[in-house]
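Support request from a user on the community tier.

User writes: "When I paste my structure tokens into the form, the page sometimes reloads and wipes my input. The last time it worked, I copied everything first. Here is what I submitted, just in case something in the input itself triggers the reload:"
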């Protein structure tokens, strides 16, 4: 910024007839700077803003806030004092500052929390709050703790929920897309809790993930992140998260397909929407019409919620995601980088041309998992048929086929594995295994029979009854003899 004496000199030169280029050259300033001060109309003084000086306590403020947040769930007489916080900082964090700066900061935080507690926030129609909860689900007979994304509209108190395996950016974006498409529009403002799932907070700055940046650019919505430990800024969605768990997930839901379950879950809001708003005395459904009227239009094309990443495969050709979940590619990719498409519910391993080599269900949770698709090992297995007895495909093969291949010599086994690979590429592994098992007759397996049977399974299924052909009754009556008087006479003359 230039001093006012410099600004006045620029304007005096201009009034004397100097052009912008001449002023720029004379004062050794950029032309844009000269033009800026010549076009400025208001030079009124503005109040100086005091910027807080850096404090020795800055690196430890997040830890202090964490301890003070824990105090909210503790008996008042056992909460932290400024002195106790100072002692813990010195013992646990290596802090060497004074008591006074700790005491002043703790006092300011508590004063701000008390002031905020009495503040009632007013929400405009269309604004939405976003948060995650967790609940147990019985998935095909197995109890799994899952995450559910809830989007609430504080103006109307309506809300919508989608269930996923985790809180990743892919899950957030997919859940938001599902909800946007269901309600027919995009909220102009989304309020998140501390960047959960869509970014990482470093100090006072939130660094959004690349996928979420693309998502909100695509849908054109603004985003606001709550201050740390300021739950009151999105209290509506926090209450909604509890409401959803208590009313929609009790008893524990039985789920076979989460795609179907999530579609049904979106419709469940209609029950809540028939209730009367707790404060406004109007039906929630009527208020949500105002929310809907404030929504932005959906873009013409839906956003593809997928993150692409190059991951290095280990010695077995497996890539690792989230530090603990392993997915097979193919053995030939050992120690090579593999392009992977990461979705909310699946992981696609891609070939060099971008087509899908294999697709896995995405895994979540703290325990290590290994997802294997043994179709990708067939090429390697054909080159080394001796490894058949220890291969994963052998475990998946039907007992009859497994025993048959166990008894083959190296040459015959390689031939049959080649047949298995060809049929798998055309019809899938399950169909190929079934067709080859059904084609074993005694000590012989016919590759031709297996190919025909695989085509039948893929096209019609083994148990499909043949379709009824056209009726031949008319032709029977016209051409077949037996019982017709004229036929009898003809036979008499012939005799």
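"...and here is what came back when it finally went through:"
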């Amino acid at each position: 910024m230039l001093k006012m004496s410099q600004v006045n000199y620029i304007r005096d030169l201009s009034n004397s007839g100097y052009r912008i280029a001449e002023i720029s050259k004379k004062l050794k300033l950029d032309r844009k700077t000269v033009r800026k001060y010549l076009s400025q109309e208001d030079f009124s003084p503005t109040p100086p803003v005091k910027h807080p000086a850096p404090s020795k306590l800055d690196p430890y403020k997040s830890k202090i806030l964490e301890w003070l947040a824990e105090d909210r769930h503790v008996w008042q007489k056992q909460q932290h004092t400024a002195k106790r916080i100072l002692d813990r900082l010195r013992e646990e964090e290596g802090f060497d500052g004074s008591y006074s700066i700790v005491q002043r900061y703790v006092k300011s935080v508590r004063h701000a929390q008390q002031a905020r507690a009495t503040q009632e926030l007013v929400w405009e129609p269309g604004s939405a709050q976003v948060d995650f909860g967790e609940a147990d689900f019985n998935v095909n007979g197995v109890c799994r703790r899952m995450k559910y994304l809830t989007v609430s509209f504080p103006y109307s108190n309506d809300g919508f929920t989608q269930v996923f395996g985790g809180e990743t950016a892919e899950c957030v974006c997919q859940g938001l897309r599902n909800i946007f498409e269901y309600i027919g529009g995009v909220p102009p403002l989304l309020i998140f809790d501390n960047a959960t799932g869509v970014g990482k907070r470093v100090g006072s700055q939130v660094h959004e993930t690349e996928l979420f940046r693309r998502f909100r650019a695509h849908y054109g919505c603004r985003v606001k992140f709550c201050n740390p430990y300021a739950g009151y800024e999105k209290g509506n969605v926090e209450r909604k998260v509890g409401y959803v768990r208590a009313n929609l997930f009790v008893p524990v839901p039985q789920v076979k397909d989460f795609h179907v379950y999530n579609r049904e879950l979106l419709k469940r809001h209609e029950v809540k929407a028939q209730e009367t708003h707790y404060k406004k005395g109007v039906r929630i459904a009527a208020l949500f019409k105002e929310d809907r009227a404030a929504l932005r239009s959906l873009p013409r094309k839906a956003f593809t919620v997928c993150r692409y990443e190059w991951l290095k495969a280990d010695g077995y050709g497996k890539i690792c995601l989230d530090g603990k979940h392993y997915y097979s590619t193919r053995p030939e990719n050992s120690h090579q980088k593999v392009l992977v498409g990461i979705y909310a519910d699946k992981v696609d391993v891609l070939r060099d041309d971008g087509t899908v080599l294999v697709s896995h269900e995405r895994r979540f949770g703290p325990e290590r998992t290994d997802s294997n698709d043994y179709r990708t090992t067939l090429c390697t297995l054909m080159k080394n048929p001796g490894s058949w007895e220890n291969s994963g495909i052998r475990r998946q093969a039907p007992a009859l086929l497994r025993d048959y291949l166990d008894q083959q010599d190296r040459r015959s086994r390689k031939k049959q594995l080649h047949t298995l690979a060809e049929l798998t590429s055309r019809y899938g592994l399950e169909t190929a295994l079934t067709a080859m098992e059904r084609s074993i007759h005694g000590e012989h397996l016919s590759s031709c029979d297996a190919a025909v049977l695989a085509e039948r399974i893929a096209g019609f299924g083994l148990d499909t009854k043949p379709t009824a052909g056209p009726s031949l009754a008319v032709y029977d009556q016209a051409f077949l003899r037996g019982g017709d008087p004229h036929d009898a006479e003809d036979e008499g003359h012939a005799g």
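Agent notes: The reload is a front-end session timeout and is unrelated to the input. Residues 116 and 136 are 34 Å apart (CA to CA). Residues 377-459 form one domain. Escalated to web team.
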